[in-house]
User: What shape does this take?
Amino acid sequence: ITDYEGEVWCISKHLLASSYRLYEVGTKELKRGNKDQAKDLFDKAFNLYSLFWALNLKVISPGEVKKIPDNAINKEDKKPEGFMGKFGDLVRKVVDCCLE
Assistant: This one.
């Protein structure tokens, strides 16, 4: 994060905190044997993490983050479409590239 004041900082810290919390809950569900619910939580955590990177790489503006509908990331989502799906695929490719 290049600027530690303002909207980008505030949105970024909430995106990362939310992403990590979903990851923690997903881990607990996995330990309980609830694999489907754990995967769902991990996917949602990854979507928030992807949104963090989109914001900080200036692919989207803070105003665009605010326009995401309230029900965009909810329990019923199966596979993100549109921006979240496309940017998530980009983040996956970057991570896969780094693993090689």
In short: The mean pLDDT is 76. The first helix runs from residue 7 to 31. Helices lie at 7-31, 35-56, 62-66, 82-99. The two ends are 26 Å apart (CA to CA).
